[in-house]
Write a structure and sequence with these properties.
Elements (H helix, E strand, L loop, with lengths): L1 H23 L20 E7 L6 H20 L8 E7 L6 H11 L5 E3 L4 H14 L3 E3 L6 H4 L4 E3 L4 H15 L4 E7 L3 H16 L3 E8 L7 H9 L4 E3 L4 H13 L6 E3 L6 H7 L7 E4 L8 H13 L7 H20 L4 H9 L4 E3 L2 E5 L5 E2 L2 E7 L2 E8 L2
Parallel strand pairs: 1-2, 1-3, 3-4, 4-5, 6-7, 6-8, 8-9, 9-10
Antiparallel strand pairs: 10-14, 11-12, 12-13, 14-15
Helix pairs in contact: 2-12, 3-4, 6-7, 9-10, 12-13
Length: about 400
């Protein structure tokens, strides 16, 4: 009886192990960089995102991440791409220099991402870009506007306009709409974004016949700007261009009002945050800035995005950073579909060939420098909200 039991038990084990072996070989695994032949791979497509989720420019990173996450969730709900779903690996760079390099090295070497999305701030994108380029990992910045970002190499892209265009837009706005002839420029010397935008504004404004009344600097994160603003007031400008980020800009506007500076103050897309109004309150009323997107002049695609965003994020309305985050993920997914692969070189080539992609921020074409050719909008702070003024085409 005991012999028969062990014999039967041994036969059962042999049968079970042979079943496991053959079931394991029944379906080949997906080759690296693509989907399985004749079926979907169980492995997700790993995409890295680095953003300023905390720190000085946290609202930028949070908005960009929310738009990116919404796109990834929508793509996954529709089945993903190439028969595979996405896994978004998100890292916070704390709005600090030094963090992006550490994060992106980790995303590539340890997490094995096939692409990287980020950053909003140009300085942090420029820190990460060489690492992606060296490893031949496509990187897409949602909204870094400094031209040097994509000059890093042919694997670096963006889905926003660049500062030479934005600077010209604001120079023309100052000349034609504000009728300004003598403008002061107040620049954050710690920011590549601010310095670049100031340069292109000055070139465009002087080319249009305007004069720079005075040019002064500040360090991002400063709290007291009264000495520089007093000097600006004494130069008698009829406008002040401040190419900075919202936290600094709000304080500058408050202190300008305290000093009796009543001329128009205007800037670039670094202004766009609800914190601008929360911090600046009535001091920022009537100010202007250029940006990438205006929900109140939206296409149907954009209206659908706004409705879905508000539903997902507890009634919160999207800003330009959220919309660009969404578009960056969608353009990446489209490139993978076009390439029929997640291989870095093939995705890079598909990204470079992107033409007339219909995104929520408008039609996007990637030019030969891997920058996006698209329109800008001008918004004004009015009654504590951002209101559309005009659209400027490239």
């Amino acid at each position: 009886m005991k012999k028969q039991f062990f014999a039967n038990h041994w036969c059962s084990l042999l049968l079970l192990s042979s079943t496991i072996v053959f079931s394991g070989c029944d379906k080949p695994s997906a080759p690296s960089g693509g989907s399985a032949a004749g079926g979907a791979s169980a492995d997700p497509i790993k995409v890295g995102e680095f953003a300023s989720l905390t720190g000085k420019e946290a609202t930028f990173g949070q908005s960009s991440h929310e738009g990116t996450q919404q796109a990834i969730d929508e793509l996954n709900a529709a089945g993903g791409v190439l028969g595979r779903k996405f896994e978004l690996i998100v890292e916070d760079d704390l709005s600090k220099a030094g963090e992006p390099a550490t994060i992106v090295n980790k995303l590539i070497a340890r997490d094995n991402v096939v692409a990287v999305l980020g950053e909003v701030a140009s300085s942090r994108s420029m820190e990460a870009a060489p690492i992606c380029q060296q490893n031949k990992i496509p990187m897409i910045s949602p909204s870094s506007t400094n031209p040097k970002v994509t000059e890093t190499g042919d694997f670096i892209f963006r889905v926003c306009f660049i500062d030479p265009f934005q600077g010209t837009v604001m120079a023309n706005f100052a000349t034609k709409t504000l009728k300004a002839k003598n403008v002061a420029v107040f620049t954050d010397v710690k920011s590549d974004y601010s310095k670049g935008l100031a340069k292109y504004f000055k070139e465009g404004f002087t080319a249009a016949g305007g004069k720079i009344a005075t040019e002064l600097d500040f360090n991002g994160g400063d709290k007291d700007f009264k000495a520089q603003l007093t000097a600006i007031k004494s130069s008698n400008p009829d406008g002040i261009f401040v190419p900075g980020y919202y936290t600094d800009v709000a304080l500058i506007c408050i202190q300008a009002k305290q000093l009796g500076l009543s001329v128009p103050i205007f800037g670039g897309d670094g202004w766009e945050s609800d914190q601008l109004v929360k911090i600046g309150q009535d001091a920022v009323e009537g100010t202007y800035f250029s940006t990438h997107y205006a929900p109140d002049v939206a296409t149907q695609k954009s209206k659908d995005f706004v409705a879905a965003y508000q539903k997902k994020w507890n009634g919160k309305s999207p800003d330009a950073m959220a919309a660009l985050g969404y578009d960056s993920a969608m353009i990446l997914a489209q490139a993978m579909k076009t390439a029929n692969s997640t291989d870095g070189q093939k995705v890079r080539d598909a990204l470079a060939a992107t033409k007339n992609f219909e995104g929520v921020t408008g039609n996007t074409t990637i030019n030969e420098k891997r920058d996006a050719t698209k329109s800008a909008v001008i918004l004004q702070v009015k009654d504590g909200k951002f209101h559309y003024v005009e659209t400027v085409n490239p």
